[in-house]
Amino acid sequence: MSSSPTSGYSVMINVTAWLIVCLLCPVQPRAQPGTTSNIKHIVVGRCYDYITLVNPGLRLDCEDIWRLFEESVVRQSSFNTSLDYHQMFSAIPQTWPRDMGLFWSKTRTLMHSYTAVERHFWTLEDTLVGYMFNGLVWCGQEDDSGFNFRSCPTWAEVKHHPVYSLWRRASQNFAEMAHGNITVLLNGSIGNAFNMKRHGNKLRSDVFLAKVCIKICIHLSLFFYSTHSMFASVEVDSLDPCRVDYVNIKMVTNLDGPFIESCNQGSVVDLIRILRSRGFHWTCTDNDE
Ligand SMILES: *[C@@H]1O[C@H](CO)[C@@H](O)[C@H](O)[C@H]1NC(C)=O
Ligand SMILES: *[C@@H]1O[C@H](CO)[C@@H](O)[C@H](O)[C@H]1NC(C)=O
Ligand SMILES: *[C@@H]1O[C@H](CO)[C@@H](O)[C@H](O)[C@H]1NC(C)=O
Q1: Distance CA 192, CA 241 (A)
Q2: Which among 103-107, 133-137, 181-185 has the top mean pLDDT?
Q3: Is residue 123 part of a domain?
Q4: What residue range is the signal peptide (predicted)?
């Protein structure tokens, strides 16, 4: 999942290009890439990798997890109801290390260096579900006959995208299970580091979804892009003040700026207000010394 500066740049161009395309034809459903080819081999292979090398203590039947996943997706073809992947999630034990939850929003670059230095952090990508489905796309088809490998809708086009539903559920579990101290990394070099504004404002929320759709559909391998705003939309609401000792927020800016948000400026203040009103203990530090 490494990306050179050049590919990062072309990613930005791609995003911009797609944003323009999306803006030009907002109603016309656009052909998007379909289900990732070889998805079964990828998911089952990653599952074996996880239970063999990453977390050898875990006793799981990878083929069975795949079957439960496949059943939920294939059964639903209309995108009218939210998939909850209930059976798959309940087949996976939710074990969680204490004091390790790391949540983040738009700090992808930093996330990697941070977890590389502080190996004890535990992110969504370290969970089995995050590991298995990272960067993949999938959807069923109308006639109920398996995955649609030709095209899947974007997140913005349908009310309940099967990929979105899975990440939403995974993020929610991740936050619900967090206990002890948790760390939130926020990017102080962009406005709205804590992406609060998506609540209660239909237009903004659609714009948000459109952006996410572009990111997930076009940059299939960039998992962090695909879920970056889950922190505001799902995870904060799922944190349990009784299980969480401290929410330690770290604001991180790019070395060369811009310096837009900090602990007492910008959307982070909203986050702190919410945390306070729900009875969380919290700390906030600007740029790690
Ligand atoms: C999806 O929902 C819409 C509006 O609720 C309804 O009109 C439509 O018939 C539904 N489609 C399917 C395939 O269930
Ligand atoms: C903050 O976000 C910008 C724009 O998405 C990105 O280029 C930058 O690398 C991020 N900074 C950190 C510290 O992650
Ligand atoms: C949890 O966070 C608080 C506040 O930052 C800190 O004082 C405490 O030492 C932390 N505890 C652990 C176990 O890291």
Answers
A1: 24
A2: 133-137
A3: yes
A4: 1-31
Tell whether the torsion through CA atoms of 58, 54, 234 and 283 is positive or negative.
positive
Q: Tell me, what CATH number does 55's domain have?
A: 1.20.82.10
Nearest CA to ligand 2 atom 12: 107
Q: What are the pocket residues of ligand 2 if the criterion is a CB atom closer than 6 Å to any ligand atom?
A: 106-110, 187, 189-190, 252, 254
Cis preceding-peptide flag for 258 (omega within 30 of 0): yes
Beta bridge partners of 248: 183, 283
Sheet of 180-187: strand order equals 102-105, 180-187, 244-252, 282-286
Q: Are 117 and 105 in contact (CB under 8 A)?
A: no
Number of domains in the chain: 1
pLDDT number for residue 69: 95
Distance of alpha carbon 1 from its chain centroid, rounded?
15
Q: Which residues contact 27 (CB under 8 A, 6 or more apart)?
A: none
Ligand nearest to the CA of 81: 1
Whole-number Å distance, alpha carbon 262 to ligand 3 midpoint, is 21
Which ligand 2 atom is at minimum distance from the Cα of 254?
Answer: 13
Residues 6+ apart with CB under 8 A from 90: none
Write out pLDDT tens, residues 21-35: 333 333 444 456 899
In a domain, 37, yes or no: yes
Residue 202 domain-assigned? no
Ligand at shortest distance from the CA of 160: 1
pTM beyond 0.90, yes or no: no
Q: Which carries the bigger pLDDT value, residue 261 or residue 197?
A: 261
Q: Residue 183's domain spans which residues?
A: 30-194+229-286
121 CA distance to ligand 3 centroid (A)? 14
In this structure, is residue 177 part of a structural domain?
Answer: yes
- Find the 120 Cα to ligand 3 centroid distance in Å: 14
